[in-house]
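To: structure desk
From: M.T.
Subject: fold request, one chain
Message: Could you run this one when you get a chance? Sequence is below, nothing fancy, just the single chain.
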Amino acid sequence: MDALNFFANVDWAEIWLATIDTMIMLFGSLFFTVLLGLPLGVLLFLCGPRQMFEQKGVYALLSLIVNILRSLPFIILLIVMIPFTVLITGTSLGVAGAIPPLVVGATPFFARLVETALREVDRGIIEATQSMGATTRQIITNALLPEARPGIFAAITVTAITLVSYTAMAGVVGAGGLGDLAIRFGYQRFQTDVMVVTVVMLLVLVQVLQSLGDKLVVHFSRK
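Reply: Done. Structure tokens follow.
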């Protein structure tokens, strides 16, 4: 009975809808983050020091942009991007209004992780592929990316977990989801039970993502 009284403020239908919103924000933004971040990470690697297409100027410029976006606190990025978000989606609120800043916030982070994963590929494999007369595209698709696949899946996992925390912060500006529920009810109305449920749901989501990511990394790693 005490347990039922403790959860008196919890509307489980609303929790379920908020969870769905969080999942849409997470996987929608993760899709675009990987779509944009993967080629950016490859470009950073190729133009980097002592790489195939070393371009110090291009690398310095890309690094500067990536570092600026990575160092900007996400809550500030949310506010700064409101005009741009409205221009793209027509709104700065709800799930649609959260995805653009989520993508902009996570893409540089993911690109750096991809660059790091590519740097761990044995240079001998790249050189062997080059010696066989492979084109740049073939080197990337047949040597670099397959060899770096475990590291890239690990990067996707880390990025997905980071996006979970970003979706929670997006609740501050009315983005919806579990974070919004935690702020509006758990914090502003002092409903501890709602806060506890939303935190547990986020923890479960993070644990599921980490477990799935670990399995993918092990699966694609060489035995």
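Reply (cont.): Residues 157 and 195 are 25 Å apart (CA to CA). Let me know if you need anything else for the meeting.
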